[in-house]
Amino acid sequence: MSSSSDQTAQRRLAAVLAADVVGYSDLMSRDEEGTLARLRDLRRQVIEPQIRSHRGRLVKTIGDGFLCEFSSPIEAVRCAVDLQEAVAQASDGEHAKPLQLRIGINLGDIIIEDDGDIFGDGVNVASRLQKMALPGGICLSGKVHEEVRDRLPYQFEDHGEHRFKNIGRLIRVYCLLAGLDPSVTSREARSTAASLDRPSIAVLPFINLSKDPEQEYFADGIVEDIIAALSRFRSFFVVARNSTFAYKGRNVSVQQIGRDLGVRYVLEGSVRRSGDKIRITAQLVDSVSGMHLWAEHYDGVMADVFDLQDQITTSVVGSIQPSIRAAEIERARRKRPESLDAYDLVMRALPYVWALEFDANKEATRLIDKALLLDPGYPLALSLAAWCRGQRIVYNWSKNVPEDKRETLRQAQAAAAIAHDDPFILTVLGAALTITREYQRAESLLERALALDPNSAWAWNRSGWLHNYRHDPEVGIQHFEHSLRLSPFDPMAFNCDMGIGCAHFIAKRYDLAAQWQEKGWRTKPSATWVHRTLAPAYALAGDLDKARESVGELLKHYPGITISQIIEAMAFSQETMGRFAEGLRLAGLPE
């Protein structure tokens, strides 16, 4: 039987405004009676009249905060702006520490109880947005922005998609008013991955000025190496390559890129290669002011290309943080190939390595094998060869799993023996050890890789998978989320979504497991191996129709695949793999 509360509760679409007073506890500790009196006056003289004037309803006050409901998102945003301006004026000159509000606004379905209180996702998202807002600032969801962007004369800043606690989907966030506290900047609030005392930088794709469009890969390779060198400085926050490459070929201002990625500095440049000669031009820009800090060109021959890269890295580091010692720059240099032709081949292979697709894997392997014929001791080539073999095992592409496991481990260990302090190569060895289920050694190597390069989005991704395999899904989710913060536009981001989905499966949250894996598959439809874990998530969530459709998609691309073959490729705990097998069985896949 339904309770009376269930019978009287109603649902409706509403704009929800959540607000609180910044630093309320600190104000109370200094002057309890005075703070209470100021807050009471503010509510009576400013907050309540403003809400009424914009046809809103004050739902409730909660300590230092309050919750309002509006039928119109336009009125909710107007009210928020007027509130911030009125509070700022009311506080001018009265006290050493003026009162300030943080406001969040969302448009969503809410539940209204018979006493007028409101609940639901629409409320929860508004509350999360309010916590994200700066003092004197306003954060609104993408739904609100969609409704108001062409109807209000305000400047909105797109702060990208965010994950909030207990909200099972990404929320796009827009901010209005930078905040009225001059000691706080929007970048400080947004760049959660970077501590405030670390310089933050994004290296954009260099423009290929060569007549030969085939040299595009070479320009990309130079950027790859500069990012790798900068990432070795623990005192820097460096955005991952795959996120900065999202701007390739686009005409976007440096200031916008700085806001998008949450960085203070942007390095941009060009490469011109003609025969044996090469010119690299680079300039460092302050993304807040748009000012050029330095610009330089570097001329040389192909044999000097690595020296030119080192000169650029040294110039960047010296301009941003002059106290960096020369010894640290020396340590940042990676083991170089003996053959530039081998280097060329590896640079050509990189996009195929990260595609995580069957045909791309074959092409990457072909190019890397050619590089190793030219330079058998090139550690990056050895490492990438190992990772390509590892992909074949993990994604059910291998024709000989035992042999591929042996070779994956052999090549990964050979690379690490040559370049034992290269974080990428240590990460590959850690990944190889998860494939052979040597989890303790894998954890040690991934921890060392992250100590050497805390900016490695891929190392955080592999650490997330390792925690999944060790039946530690909550830490796994944290590491996937950290990877996404480091590289928000990464083409590999879908792999983090998949990891989060599998973590929810491990924790028996099957609905969320399906949602996250669906998101990963929508982002990367060619990654048909997703259905190996998506189908069982559907099945154990109770949606057998979707589970059977998912298995049908899997069989289109993996004709004849069986449950036992899928389980052999996975590295999860026996208990988790048992549930994957159960779900696949329910979805109709043969043993």
Automatic annotation (TrEMBL):
PROSITE patterns in alphabetical order: GUANYLATE_CYCLASE_2, TPR
InterPro entries assigned to the protein according to its UniProt record, in alphabetical order: A/G_cyclase, Adenylyl/Guanylyl_Cyclase_3/4, Nucleotide_cyclase, TPR-like_helical_dom_sf, TPR_rpt
Intervals holding TPR repeats: 423-456
Residue span(s) of domain Guanylate cyclase: 15-130
CDD domains: CHD
Domain of life assignment: Bacteria
Signal peptide residue numbers: none
Alphabetical UniProt keywords: TPR repeat
Protein name per Swiss-Prot or TrEMBL: Guanylate cyclase domain-containing protein
Highest classification ranks of the organism: Bacteria, Pseudomonadati, Pseudomonadota, Alphaproteobacteria, Hyphomicrobiales
